[in-house]
Amino acid sequence: MEKLAQVDFRALFEAAPGLYLVLDPELRIVAASDAYLKATMTRREAIMGRGIFDVFPDNPEDPEASGVRNLSASLEQVREKRVPDTMAVQKYDIQRPDEEGGGFEERYWSPKNIPVIDGAESSPTQELQKLNKELQAAAQTKNEFLSRMSHELRTPLAAIMGFSELLGMADLDEREREWAATILKAGQHLLRLVDDVLAISRIEARELSFSVEPVPIASSQ
């Protein structure tokens, strides 16, 4: 019988593409994925063993900050009822490292808190797989929405830009021509933004194609 290779589950967890954080019953940080560390601008050795709210306090410059209160309530519910809790989008600012200027950076999150119980039917690995599938489905839905929205916006934009061009060619006084030019310029700017959004959705969906074309190179002299 062949000897099975030993699997380093901690290494697999840390390399997972999702933003995962593991807390003990006292809400101390015991594990974090590399993606989570990158997103929160933290280092593993600096946060391990510390309370989550010591690492991520509310922004003291935001009098309406509610991140700690809302997350604490969700975690307490998960701990007591032993059921997952998906939170609505939360404004929860993150501290910048000193080398990046310090202070707080505005951030928005949609946390999903899951209990990991000894002897539970679903293992932590299965929970992570399920969560990863849900995140992939959410990303696909977002890309489809962005694609539809971009196409829907292009039609009225084309009409706005077309009529503003016609107005610019009409017998107007100088002030009215400036108004038409402003409408056209704003429409062109918005169209570029729509194209950028559509390109991003295609990139994330891996549907963006490239074409190789000759490009003139100006002389350096």
Question: Portion of residues in helices?
Answer: 40-55%
List the uncertain runs. none
- The first-level CATH class of the largest domain is given as Alpha Beta
Spatial order of the strands forming the largest sheet: 1-2
Number of helices: 7
CATH architecture title of the largest domain:
2-Layer Sandwich
Provide the residue-averaged pLDDT.
82
Largest sheet features? 2 strands, antiparallel
CATH topology call of the largest domain: Beta-Lactamase
What general form does the structure show?
Answer: elongated
Total domain units: 2
* Order of SSEs: HEEHHHHEEEEEEHH
- Count of extended strands: 8
Can you walk through the features of this model?
With 221 residues, the chain is mostly helical. The chain is built from seven helices and eight strands. The chain has helices at 9-15, 34-40, 44-47, 52-55, 67-81, 124-169, 174-204, and strands spanning 21-23, 29-32, 85-86, 90-91, 94-95, 104-105, 108-109, 112-113. α6 (124-169) packs antiparallel against α7 (174-204).
In brief:
52% of the residues lie in helices and 9% in strands.
